[in-house]
Amino acid sequence: MKTKLYLAACLIGLFCLKGCVPLLIGGAAAGAAGSGTYLYINGELLVEYNVSFDTLRNACETVVAEMGGREVVPVWKIGEGSINALIKGESVKIRLEYKSRETTLLAIRIGYFGNKTSAQLIKDNITEYLLNNQ
Fold first, then answer.
1. What are the sequence ranges of the domains in the chain?
2. pLDDT score for 55
3. What pTM was computed for the model?
4. What is the DSSP letter of 51?
5. How far apart are CA 19 and CA 40, in angstroms?
6. Least packed by Cβ within 10 Å: which of 39, 56, 90, 112?
């Protein structure tokens, strides 16, 4: 019980200092493509992948296309970017943030309030793409 309280206090502290929580609980980044563990905060699914920014960007673009994304609007800058699209009638925003040469933060929001199940599905498709194409 004390461990859980300590962990919660640490997460809250990091959230306050950084503004977003780009960390993985329990070393979720083990493995080539990233992850089994993610964080779902305020309607946004966050996961850190152990792949380069460009590799994850290509995976996201491919998955959006494979899922039938319409009205796709990619916005890429140095070290950050996003893809806004409509997938099966739902507004999807996928955001990437460069952390290091081989670490990239992925954030997925479905609709205005978020949809955890749909965000997990997109995350799982991205993870599968990365595992099959590395």
1. 22-132
2. 94
3. 0.72
4. S
5. 14
6. 112
Q: Residues near 92 by Cβ (< 8 Å), separated by ≥ 6?
A: 64, 69, 83, 84, 85, 86, 108, 109, 110, 118, 122
CB contact at 8 A, 60 and 82: no
Q: Which residues of the chain have pLDDT under 50?
A: 2, 4-5, 16-32
Q: 55: phi > 0 → left, psi -120 to 50 → alpha, else beta; which?
A: alpha
Q: What local confidence, expressed as pLDDT, does residue 22 receive? A: 37
Query: For the chain, what is the radius of gyration of the CA atoms?
Result: 15
Q: What are the DSSP calls for 53-122, one per residue? A: HHHHHHHHHHHHHHTT-EEEEEEEETTEEEEEEEETTEEEEEEEEEEETTEEEEEEEETTT--HHHHHHH
Name the nearest CA neighbour of 50 among 130, 133, 132, 111: 130
Tokens representing 126 are: 């991205």
What is the architecture of the domain spanning 22-132? Answer: 2-Layer Sandwich (3.30)
